[in-house]
Design goal:
By secondary structure, the chain is an alpha/beta fold. The chain contains eight helices and nine strands. Helix 2 packs parallel to helix 6 and helix 6 packs across helix 7.
């Protein structure tokens, strides 16, 4: 059984009814060095981006990599407008009191959902949120989707991979590499296979001996 979730029925209908791009432009963002002392460094995010680059080269698709100091809020937001796929390897924060203040931590500040949904993302298809707690809900609002993954679907992304709690830095590259190997298999890009790709990547992580807390956080939303 392969699991996939949706924050709302309308989000699922939108995701399943949209046409897919055969040659998507991919934005890969890595924040290995934290902009503030409040967050730990994520050195493996650089390896994560290298693995995605290798997979993308086999498909001859347009890959834009933005790392560390280059990853400003303005730069990332502008590139997201031009790209169908986005991979965010960084820290994330969730604001349960004001969900639209939930954000991705970038080089010069926070890219908040409130800001993200103000801008049209006409090309949005697939988002891989390789950041901590991007799909963490709130026990007080069990029936409501109040997390970054749901916000990305609200912003227009049809398929989103996220995490329910903090992941190990070493697991990010492994899971991401296996996911993109499947999405870009045989030289063809297909984001509609994201749920299957994540299922296989997590299964491989489990078989490697990873603990329950290491492989369980990864989750797929959309179609």
């Amino acid at each position: 059984m392969i699991s996939s979730y949706t924050p709302t029925i309308s989000a699922l209908l939108q995701a399943s009814s949209s046409a897919k791009s055969t040659s998507p432009r991919v934005l890969a963002v890595a924040q290995a060095e934290s902009a503030t002392q409040s967050f730990s460094a994520l050195p493996s995010t650089r390896q994560e981006i290298r693995l995605i680059s290798q997979k993308a080269a086999l498909c001859s698709i347009d890959l834009i990599t933005v790392e560390d100091s280059q990853g400003t809020v303005e730069r990332v937001l502008e590139e997201m407008k031009r790209c169908e796929w986005v991979h965010l390897a960084c820290h994330g924060t969730q604001d349960l009191d004001m969900p639209t203040k939930s954000a991705f931590i970038l080089a010069d500040g926070n890219l908040e959902l409130e800001e993200l949904i103000k801008h049209p993302l006409p090309r949005a298809e697939f988002a891989f949120l390789s950041a901590c707690q991007t799909a963490t809900g709130d026990v007080k609002l069990a029936e409501e989707a109040v997390h970054l993954a749901a916000g990305m679907m609200l912003a227009g992304y049809r398929s989103v991979i996220a995490t329910m709690w903090s992941i190990r830095d070493m697991d990010g590259p492994e899971v991401a590499g296996d996911v993109y190997a499947e999405l870009l298999k045989d030289g063809k890009a297909d984001h509609t296979q994201a749920a299957y790709a994540l299922h296989r990547a997590v299964q491989k992580l489990r078989l490697s001996g990873a603990t329950f807390l290491a492989w369980m956080p990864f989750i797929h939303f959309g179609a």
